[in-house]
Specification:
It contains 17 helices and no strands. The protein has 490 residues and is mainly α. The chain has two domains: 199 residues, Growth Hormone, Chain: A; 186 residues, MFS general substrate transporter like domains (Growth Hormone, Chain: A, Up-down Bundle). The longest helix has 32 residues. The radius of gyration is 22 Å and the shape is globular. The two termini are 21 Å apart.
Length: 490
């Protein structure tokens, strides 16, 4: 479910916000500025995000179990995920444009209230015994469309809730919170589903209500859109200073930083198709972002082909059962939690070279996971992979948030998420097909080799991409040069 502000969003605050004048920022106690915990909008939305993710994971787990128990069909149970993935892939394309056209605070609030009502309706159907598979799938499809809108919205909002120099740490905390929700949610869902699936849907509806309250407490309705942001700015990969663009000032690093995140920088001007083309140009019109986007998409495809086969590895290589699979999956989750904590303290990669080296490490760990016959080694590899994956994702997301103009973030992230939603099932189907024809360890080894080759080609053929992570945060030369998007490598 959702509750953030991306995603895993709010643009820069207006230089002349409506309402009472902002207080003068107090001197920062350090070069990094005040603690993240002093930025109330971020903290409120971050806490709500944890509740929201846990609620969403709980309801999804319970609904899948309800479908399996009611129909006795694994295929129909799988249709739950298939419908959600299809809807998100379709809705993801216009989602980014809508995020950049509409007032983000109001959009955020309406989105959470709407999704809460959908889950409340689902709970009512389950409790009254009126739920049918078609009705459940329709409601889940509506919720999935909301999630497709939420993901680019979230990624666009977070950068404006904290000072630029603390963005990587904030993204690390967001990743940590989501890991907590993903660990707690299924356990909660299992407990609730053992009583009645309706309780899980009701808890999810309540989590959306919590998110809506958090949005109000964060002052989202008062978020004010900047005067404007040229699409050329995003395409050129250069952040225009307020004095140059005639637009809003960047958030200050003091107490009021992030108090009034801006709405869409571009406003509702221009046609929908024109704004969509601007989003494409913002990515593929740049010699750094275009190759990076292609690299991330290719890596997502490759890792998806392998990691869908983890249950097969457990069965054929480790000669284990469901309990062993649980240990392996838990190692990934705990590793992701650890990596998020490390990223939250600023320990992520700060150079493109370091980012790519971490992905090479993931490739090596991939071969261990696919071939090890010793469970402790597999668990250790899963934990390290989870740690590294979190660091890589946080760095990639932060980099994109800093490299793209606020008024284009929704479209850029919407495009990235949509491509990922399309490529991930394709990779999974390819992996499943290969697993019936070649040894599973060979598939993991091929993924590792393909990953290293893709990185080498990108490093050699796209030199502009190498400097992407090396850039300081937009509008703040002293900001740490690390980045973070939900890349989901593995």
């Amino acid at each position: 479910m959702s509750a953030s502000g991306t995603p895993t969003g709010a643009p820069a605050r207006d230089a002349s916000p409506a309402g009472p004048p902002a207080r003068q920022a107090a001197p920062a106690p350090s070069a990094r500025g005040p603690s993240l915990w002093r930025h109330r909008p971020f903290v409120v939305l971050w806490l709500a995000r944890i509740v929201s993710v846990a609620g969403g994971m709980a309801s999804m787990m319970a609904i899948q179990w309800w479908v399996l128990e009611t129909t006795g069909s694994a295929q129909r149970m799988a249709s739950v995920n298939a419908v959600a993935a299809l809807v998100m892939a379709v809705a993801g394309l216009p989602a980014g444009v809508l995020v950049d056209r509409w007032h983000r605070g109001r959009f955020f609030l309406v989105l959470e209230i709407g999704r809460g009502l959908v889950m409340a309706a689902l709970a009512a159907l389950l409790f009254t015994g009126q739920a049918s598979l078609p009705a459940v799938l329709v409601l889940l499809a509506v919720d999935a469309a909301g999630l497709a809108l939420f993901m680019p919205l979230s990624s666009a909002i977070w950068p404006e809730l904290v000072p630029p120099q603390q963005l990587a740490a904030a993204n690390g905390l967001v990743a940590t919170g989501e890991s907590v929700g993903r660990i707690a949610g299924p356990a909660l869902g299992g407990m609730l589903a053992s009583r009645h699936a309706g309780w899980a849907a009701l808890v999810d509806a309540v989590s959306y209500a919590v998110s809506a309250v958090a949005i109000l407490l964060a002052g989202a309705l008062g978020w004010k859109a900047p005067a404007g942001s040229s699409p050329a700015e995003g395409a050129a990969g250069r952040s225009v200073a307020p004095s140059e663009a005639g637009g809003p000032a960047a958030p200050r690093a003091g107490r009021d930083a992030g108090r009034r995140p801006a709405g869409p920088a571009g406003g509702p001007h221009g046609s929908f198709a024109g704004q969509f083309r601007e989003g494409l140009a913002a990515v593929f019109g740049r010699p750094d972002l275009g190759p990076f986007f292609i690299l991330v998409s290719v890596l997502n495809l490759a890792f998806a082909a392998s990691f869908v086969l983890i249950p097969v590895v457990v069965q054929r290589v480790l000669q284990g059962g469901p309990q062993v699979l649980g240990w392996i999956q838990a190692s990934f989750a705990v590793g992701a939690l650890t990596g998020g904590l490390l990223a939250g303290t600023g320990r992520g990669p700060r150079r493109a070279r370091g980012w790519m080296q971490l992905i090479v490490l993931q490739a090596l760990l991939c071969t261990v996971l696919g071939s090890s016959r010793w469970l402790p080694a597999s668990i250790a590899a899963g934990w390290v992979f989870g740690v590294v994956n979190a660091l890589v994702n946080v760095a990639a997301t932060t980099m994109l948030q800093q490299a793209v103009a606020p008024g284009l973030r929704g479209r850029v992230f919407g495009l990235l998420y949509t491509v990922a939603m399309i490529l991930q099932p394709l990779g999974q189907m390819a992996g499943g097909t290969l697993a019936d024809r070649v040894p599973v360890p060979s598939i993991f080894a091929a993924t590792a080799l393909f990953t290293v080759l893709a990185l080498a080609v990108a490093w050699w053929r796209a030199p502009a991409m190498r400097t992407l992570l090396d850039r300081p945060a937009a509008g703040n030369a002293a900001a740490p040069r690390s980045g973070a998007v939900e890349v989901n490598l593995g």
